[in-house]
Amino acid sequence: MAKREGIEISLAVAEAVKLADVDMVAAYPITPQTHIVEKLAEMVADGELKAAYINAESEHSAISLCLGSSIAGARTYTATSSQGLALMHEILYIASALRLPVVMTVVNRALSGPLNIWGDHSDVMGERDTGWIQFFAQNGQEAFDMTLQAFRVAEDHRVMLPVIVNIDGFTLSHVIEPIYILEQNEVNKFMKEFKPLNALDPRTPMTFGAFATPEYYIEAKKQLEQALFSSRKVITEVWNEFGKLYGRKYTPIEGYKANDANILLLTLGGIGETAQTAVDEMRDDGIKVGLLKLKLYRPFPIQELRRMCKKAKTLVIAERAMSIGGEGGPIGFEVRSAFYNEPTHLKIHDIILGLGGRDVRVEDFKMMINHALKNKPKEYELIGVRE
Amino acid sequence: MKEKIIEIRWHGRGGQGVVTCAELLAKAAIAEGKYAQSAPSFGPERRGAPVAAFLRISNKPIYLRSQITHPDIVVVLDPTILTLPDVTAGIKKNAIFIANTNKLLEDVKYILGVNVNLGVIDATKIALEIIRRPITNTTMIGSFIRATNIVKIESVKQEIMTRFPTNYETNIKAMIRGYDELEMETDANRTVIKEKKDGKKAMPKLPKWRELTIGLTTKAGSAQAYKTGSWRSLVPVTDATKCIKCGICWVYCPDSARYQTPDGTYETNFDYCKGCGICARECPTHCITMQEEKE
Ligand code: SF4
Ligand code: SF4
Fold this sequence. Notes:
With 387 residues, chain A is an alpha/beta fold.
């Protein structure tokens, strides 16, 4: 039976990685990812986890090591944050292009400058187009569950893509809360053996990372795009199976009191739970507000989003990243374009908040909703700024 | 020819100065007040590999940045690539075609298989005589000017002097001989051939995206199928009696075309030797000499 434990979310993620029985962890410590990799290093040193642990000299090397080990057929894991993720940037594209099922936890943190170690989503939004599947966890249980799910999705031969599991820096990563930690024998029912498509093996030499001239590059990108789109089917399958085994249901967008709502909020990550409390309180005041929590960011669940917004008149996006010089944030762009050619009168407000670890409170959501109901806000607004 | 853009495609092998041809002529045309544009066909720079360069010349501004697929004029600097489909690909009807070859004009026409307005010149011979290397670019520029009359020989001279401050004299000499010795068909003495069915020889069929392997992973050693031996115009000849079996040629050969024979000396694998001459230059006993490839 799964044990209900009061455990720090970072450590729960490390437990999940151990339960997934990874063969290789390569990482470089960076706040706020450190507790995950420190725990894993300890597990390996204590012989609890039979895996290679490489403390690389940089994140660029860490992710490169991961590519090598994944090509060799090892189940591979890494974790990073902020500047570390930015340093991995160029290699991330190669991981997906080589179709390597590396799993990475990104403990979301603001990018410098100014130097800031606290949470927002600006790090991972820079990796939007890298071809990785991306999950967003809203609590510790999801962080634990999604880590296991990530390996199953990534290593499925119909997918073979790397997966990022996003968890908010500090507001999730360093929080202790009750989490059901599965037993090894329970996890074994879910996990499958990793069989690489083509393992790097001197007995059957292969060419990995071949050069592609203009005659091939677009076709290669099309193949990758299609792989990402078709991963949807496998993600759904894996989530359904996970739900049957352990009773926790996952969907690309989780609706909360969304069915009959006039006005909807859309969130990613941990602020979804705070928004949920705001929705409850506003419902008590008779406001028909609902909430959409985006859990699958790549591939983007555009059909679900359109369907779940059918009845609403207004959609308020609350996101923790900017696109400086653009009219909104990255989620705002994506959501607006999802509706642009649709026969809908949905009003979309894109609110950017909680940058660099600025606290996001119930009142913030209430204010956003009240403003939107009075049709006050601009199309896009950065809120919480001292004027 | 006054108002339209003239499109010229240059073919040769890496290291022969194909791009230089297009550049010098573009600069000369611009100096004359015309509009011109030269561009290499971007790709990995490998000595000996077939390469192309593009040149557009016009009296009006040129608003085009695509490659030249339907050339008005084609110039081929290397005799060994006349059989490649690329040189005639998309060529316009009655385009001017200038070939560096020691073959007869009629024979070249049959090799090409299309009814171009053909000019031939043995530029390799001229270059070897004047420049002492088989670098035919300036010779071919001379032939190009003669056949097309698009830029003035004086303007190109200026560009050559700027570009080759130490050896412009030989290059200008080569250009003038290229100009003088071009043998060009005239309307009166045109050879008309029955065009080959595959005159506009089809390019190889490329795989569709679904046909690519996952992640582009392929069998190792695919470079073995790429026989760079066809790139060769010079061939290394080894005097085994002088070979001291040091293996230096093997180390330096960029295409791994040198191998050790059972008696310990080194020989050339002609499937892959592209004739670059590096082995001959590096061999400490000078037992390798580069000689002209015989048919
Ligand atoms: S054998 Fe000599 S000439 Fe031939 S490719 Fe190698 S180095 Fe060049
Ligand atoms: S470099 Fe010259 S001497 Fe040395 S092995 Fe090659 S051919 Fe022989």
